[in-house]
Specification:
The chain is mainly alpha-helical and 161 residues long. It contains 7 helices and no strands. GO terms for molecular function: aspartic-type endopeptidase activity.
């Protein structure tokens, strides 16, 4: 049980950044680049500390590649949705947040992050509807708080934890 304490602590290290990301996105519908950058940088630092001495460059390189791939994937999805629907669905701050999460969870956990984020957002929309708020195709819901929740969910459900 004691061997798992450091891994569990890494789950908490992102909280001082994901909480403000969620709150700012809820209030202003924007995720500041500085917070996404800090989340990304801290994730790389955590990776460097956790990696064995000779594997640090490999771990950092892999995280950079995974972040770039996640960014390109979701920027492409954002663009495709915009062309198909004629409006923006996912903000660039959300795309950057997904990329910034990769050093923390890795590309293999990205589907779980998106699943947790999507299901929690759907739950929030359901709660809004039950509370009497109109919910429709034009309802705007900041996705950053749900992505932050998805990040922490994916961290907690990592197979190596």
């Amino acid at each position: 049980m004691v061997a798992h304490i450091p891994a569990l602590l890494t789950v908490l290290l992102a909280l001082p950044l994901t909480v403000p990301i969620a709150l700012i996105d809820l209030r202003r519908h924007i995720i500041p680049n500085a917070l996404n950058g800090a989340l990304f940088g801290l994730g790389l630092c955590v990776l460097a500390v956790q990696a064995p001495g000779g594997a640090i460059p490999v771990a950092i390189g892999l995280a950079l590649a995974e972040s770039a791939l996640a960014y390109l994937l979701f920027a492409g999805l954002r663009a495709a949705y915009g062309r198909l629907r004629g409006r923006t669905g996912l903000g660039f701050g959300d795309v950057k947040l997904i990329a910034a999460a990769m050093p923390w969870i890795g590309l293999a956990q990205l589907p779980l992050m998106i699943l947790v984020a999507s299901l929690s957002a759907l739950g929030a929309l359901g709660a809004m509807r039950l509370a009497g708020h109109p919910v429709g195709m034009r309802t705007r819901l900041p996705f950053g708080p749900f992505l932050a929740l998805g990040l922490h969910g994916a961290q907690l459900l990592r197979p190596d934890l």
